[in-house]
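hey so u asked for the seq, here:
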Amino acid sequence: MEATAEIEQKPQHSIWLPMVLAGSMFFILGCITWLNGAITPFLQQMLELTPLQASFIISSFYIAVTIAGIPSAMLIKRVGYKNGMAIGCTIMAASALLYIPAAKMQMIEIFLFAQLLIGVGQTVLQTAVNPYVVKMGSEKSAAVRVCIMGLLNKFAGVIVPIAFAAVVVSGVVADGEQLSQAQKDAMANSLILPYIAIAGLIFVFALFAKFSPLPDLVFDEGESSGKGEIKEALSHPHLVLGVIGIALYVAVEVIAADTIGSYALAIGIADYSVMTSYTMACMLIGYAIGIALIPKYMSQQNALVMSGIAGLVTVAAVILGSNDSFVIANLVLVPFGGPQLPDPLLCIALLGFANAMVWPAIWPLALAGLGRLTGTASGLLIMGIAGGALGPLLIGLGNVAGLGAQGAYAVMIPSYLFILFYALKGHKMRSWK
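ran it, structure tokens below
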């Protein structure tokens, strides 16, 4: 039997009540996820890490999805979507407190463990909130609702790096200078109060998810579960290819958002910790355009086609651009009082625009027609977020292999080619024959 939402049986205006709940969850997900882009170069400088070692900070966050994806789906079926949101937030709040001993001892191992656990919490929350949004209304307009959620998620991605820079990154020594132990201690201590505040904020969201009088998704009692259902879900090619598409998309999204700060640090940009905000701002613009155009003027699959093409073109601009060229900045930043930043750096940010519609388009295309398998399929799609662990590692390895900080972005090309394939053919496949 198909999963349904209580709100689908009520007047249309009632959709906005659960949208508030889902929106708050997407905002907190954005705060945690996009903080990675600010804290990675910060820890790289404080702990004197190599680019490859720094990539583990991001990868440990996303590898948690591989561990927690299917267990999260099983948990959600047992406790419900709203309770799943509350549990995910609680795990994230508790994990945030681990950053305090990590900072005190200045041990990368504890930071990595904290990143892993907070990744488990965000996996539970993602598994609960994404199908909640997709199934609360018409399937044809699902991408628009996901876009609205994405606006909140990426808005958090704009303000969090700026807030991190203002509250934490103060008096940081410029790249190339040797840090004294006193300076390292000052950087470490600056993390403590912010992470206490983060833990408290997330716990408030957990209480909101638990006690808000809003509807939940309801599944029929006859719905199956377990390994048999997973096998049945995997028999649908458009879902399997969608999981691969999500994995490759998250890899390039994380590269664009979370490695831009490290790239800025590598080329000597002082304000490296706010660079993620540029990528998120570009994604916000992409989401806004998607909301305006879909489905009235553009279908979800056509938006995905445009995203794949835009990604390929922008990656080429990153690789082939010159760090001595400032054409983009002189056109869109400097006239408004913004900084003069190199073209390749801003092209990395522009990948946020290319990426904006990929997640909102793949989700409804991959879940189309799955009915009672929606919950399990959502867990499998969430597992695709593990692709975020691959992206930074590939960039780090490409750097070590001699491609350099700029040439390493070539690893993104296969991902955009697959996204283009899924948009043109993969989402239509209903048989492996």
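The beta strands are 4-5, 217-218. The mean pLDDT is 81.
lmk if thats what u needed
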